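Researcher: I'd like a candidate sequence for this fold, 368 residues long. If you have to choose between options at a position, lean toward the conservative one.
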């Protein structure tokens, strides 16, 4: 995934900037960092960033898309370098009389897509086969991806005669040399589109909704991303598709919690159950299960249910389920209950400070 600077930062403007402000910021910066005039060491890279930022922010739709999704927006066809796209050329030509640069080798790979998948808790534990629905860029159905209006075809670029590259003799202090560069007119494709496809405005891509089957493996750790190779956005003009990254959101379970390979839950028992022990039905990943609470269990003690956790992601077997025992102190007592507890209290040791023993030992001592 790209770690590109924020477009607003690149142009040094507020997120609320209007079209005039954007244009002015672009003009000033483009003049300053144009590689032909700038002496800054990173002028070329800066210049490219500035143009990329402007290309997006000047266009209402692209800007809205960027504001919403950032650089990796699911609908952004403009990930890697849109200097191949045509629109930017107009801007360049207006300012500098050509000089648009792009890398040789026409078809560029599409950007990676991203989608969030909502899973039920138990599906995230045991794995599930499910469907994701998302949008991606595919070759435009109207022009078959070549960007030309119906009834027309891309024509061979006159500037490079279809080669996609031009040779230019350049003079320098070391003498004359031949510089091979990507053709400015066609962006290296070797073909130009004279009348643009109205559906994709010549880009050759359209946004379509697609569905894909996904197998979520058992024991998937929370926060893990799944990747579907080649299921991201197609690149313009036959560029191969990027990948699809699937983020996983797990819906909380009413009772169970995940802790790595283990599952945790709480159980509340009363004072008598704590002292005498109990058999309770508790919820586990495998459904309800009868569990024996030992007599004399201490508040906060975990009871381990072996092998009732999540399947281990890289090893065989399953983690454990830890049941945390909470003791509810009664707050509303009937006369009889009060009498019984008072009688009980007379037979038990009273509270005292720990006398240097640990807190847990103190509690244990109180129940001996
Ligand atoms: Zn089209
Ligand atoms: Zn050309």
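Model: Candidate sequence:
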């Amino acid at each position: 995934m790209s770690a590109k600077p924020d477009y607003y930062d690149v142009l040094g403007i507020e997120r609320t900037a209007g079209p005039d402000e954007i244009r002015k910021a672009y003009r000033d910066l483009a003049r300053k960092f144009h590689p032909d005039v700038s002496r800054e060491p990173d002028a070329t890279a800066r210049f490219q960033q500035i143009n990329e930022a402007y290309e997006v922010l000047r266009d209402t739709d692209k800007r809205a898309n960027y504001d919403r999704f950032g650089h990796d927006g699911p609908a952004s066809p403009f990930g890697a370098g849109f200097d191949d796209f045509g629109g930017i050329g107009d801007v360049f030509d207006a300012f500098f009389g050509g000089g648009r640069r792009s890398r040789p080798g026409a078809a560029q790979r599409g950007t990676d897509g991203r989608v969030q998948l909502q899973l039920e808790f138990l599906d995230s534990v045991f794995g599930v086969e499910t469907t994701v629905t998302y949008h991606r860029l595919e070759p435009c159905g109207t022009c078959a991806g070549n960007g030309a209006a119906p009834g027309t075809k891309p024509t061979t670029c006159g500037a490079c005669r279809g080669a996609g590259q031009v040779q230019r003799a350049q003079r320098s202090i070391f003498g004359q040399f031949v510089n091979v560069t990507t053709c400015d007119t066609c962006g290296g494709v070797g073909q130009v589109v004279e009348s643009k496809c109205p559906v994709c405005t010549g880009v050759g891509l359209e946004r379509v909704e697609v569905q894909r089957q996904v197998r979520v493996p058992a024991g998937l750790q929370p926060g893990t991303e799944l990747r579907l190779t080649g299921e991201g956005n197609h690149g313009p003009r036959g560029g191969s598709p990027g990948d699809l990254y699937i983020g996983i959101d797990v819906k909380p379970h009413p009772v169970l919690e995940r802790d790595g390979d283990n599952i945790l839950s709480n159980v509340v028992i009363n004072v008598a159950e704590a002292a005498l022990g109990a058999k309770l039905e508790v919820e586990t990943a495998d459904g309800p299960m009868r569990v024996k609470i030992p007599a004399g269990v201490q508040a906060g003690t975990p009871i381990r249910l072996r092998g009732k956790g999540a399947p281990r992601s890289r090893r065989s077997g399953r983690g454990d389920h830890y049941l945390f025992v909470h003791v509810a102190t009664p707050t509303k007592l009937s006369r009889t209950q009060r009498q019984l507890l008072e009688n009980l209290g007379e037979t038990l040791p009273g509270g005292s400070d720990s006398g240097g023993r640990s807190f847990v030992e103190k509690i244990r001592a109180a129940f001996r």
